[in-house]
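4.2 Preliminary Data

To establish feasibility before requesting continued support, the project team ran the inverse folding procedure on a target of 392 residues. The structure was first converted into the token representation described in Section 3, and no sequence information of any kind was made available to the design step. The complete token record follows.
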């Protein structure tokens, strides 16, 4: 098998303290990475690098792990430009929010949904994302939720069943009946395509008891829980996520001291996934990442890419927001967008550049990862390797 050495790396982020300078990022200066097939074969100082069949000169630039986007909603049709424009213009808008996307998604063909998914995946890859999770949740019928997951599963192993995004418009007068559908026939149809089960635990969506029923039914079907928790208001989502050992509690915007303490105590089990694109796009309160990190919680950053509240696929943009508005350091933000996302997906083979890991790398047109926050909005990702193959 052909090996490739990426040489002349000014600064390499490994996310392994033992390999580098002892920091969480495991930085190595003047580094080389050797790729063998789909995996990283060797990492270290350039003057100790083994021979390789091919060579790629990084020309004094930085290399980081590919971003791990652990929360997105990419199987949908249409957009909600009018809704965003009204919100940003201070005008009222009542076209239906998520229900608007549900109607467009139901009306779209499989080919149209897949083409839209692939367009967003390519967009994300060009910005350094090499691992992504995505959800259903815009179909809300048995057939539409199952086809969304089937389409997603053809392109990623991290697929989440989110039949419990909102109560289906078809069950507006019978939310209990919709919970029965989500935990019964819909779950049976969707579970074969998914790894995860999720629920929007929030006022106007699903309360704590409904969320518990949905997550426990999903777990009984072999799916691992994750929770949309405490985005719009204080509520039971975070505590439920910790209790059920969910892989992540996502959003975490409105947290009590007890919620923060619970996430800190569950740092090895439940990751607090923060989604700054949603706050940016809705002018909402920012999650307090500093509070969570200082308490000892594990934090991930993700895009929440969706057509309504966070229509961005850019992890570098989310890093810049986290540093500017959520009180994270550049080092913490990068770790959370790579290793933190991997933790939220319970993965050890991505989000790191270590021997045996998947060879997912991004080359920055900059000497340091700090430029991701230092130069917001600048397209700094100049090359991407995914499973050892140059993808960008």
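Position-by-position output of the design step:
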């Amino acid at each position: 098998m052909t090996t490739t050495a990426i040489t002349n790396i000014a600064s390499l982020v490994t996310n392994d303290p033992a390999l580098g300078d002892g920091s969480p990022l495991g930085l190595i200066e003047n580094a080389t990475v050797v790729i063998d097939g789909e995996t990283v074969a060797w990492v270290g100082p350039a003057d100790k690098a083994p021979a390789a069949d091919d060579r790629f000169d990084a020309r004094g630039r930085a290399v980081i792990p590919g971003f791990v986007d652990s929360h997105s909603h990419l199987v949908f049709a249409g957009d909600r430009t009018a809704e965003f424009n009204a919100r940003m213009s201070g005008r009222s808008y009542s076209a239906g929010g998520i229900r608007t996307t549900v109607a467009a998604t139901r009306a779209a063909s499989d080919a149209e949904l897949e083409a839209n998914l692939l367009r967003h995946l390519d967009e994300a890859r060009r910005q350094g994302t090499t691992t992504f999770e995505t959800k259903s949740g815009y179909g809300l019928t048995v057939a539409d939720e199952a086809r969304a997951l089937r389409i997603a599963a053809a392109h990623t192993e991290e697929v989440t069943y989110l039949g419990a995004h909102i109560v289906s418009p078809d069950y507006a007068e019978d939310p209990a009946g919709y919970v029965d559908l989500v935990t019964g026939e819909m779950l049976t149809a969707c579970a074969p395509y998914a790894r995860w089960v999720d629920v929007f635990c929030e006022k106007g969506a699903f309360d704590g008891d409904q969320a518990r029923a949905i997550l426990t039914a999903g777990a009984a079907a072999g799916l691992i829980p994750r929770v949309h928790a405490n985005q719009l208001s204080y509520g039971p989502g975070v505590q439920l996520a910790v209790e059920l050992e969910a892989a992540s509690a996502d959003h975490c915007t409105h947290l009590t001291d007890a919620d923060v303490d619970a996430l800190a105590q569950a740092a090895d089990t439940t990751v607090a996934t923060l989604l700054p694109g949603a706050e940016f796009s809705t002018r909402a309160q920012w999650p307090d990442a500093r509070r969570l990190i200082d308490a000892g919680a594990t934090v991930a950053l993700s895009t929440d890419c969706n057509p309504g509240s966070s229509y961005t696929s850019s992890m570098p943009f989310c890093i810049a927001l986290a540093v500017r508005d959520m009180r994270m350091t550049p080092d913490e933000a990068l770790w959370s967008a790579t290793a933190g996302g991997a933790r939220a997906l319970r993965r050890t083979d991505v989000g790191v550049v270590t021997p045996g890991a998947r060879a997912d790398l991004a080359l920055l047109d900059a000497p340091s990862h700090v430029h991701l926050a230092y130069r917001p909005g600048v397209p700094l990702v100049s090359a991407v390797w995914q499973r050892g193959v140059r993808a960008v």
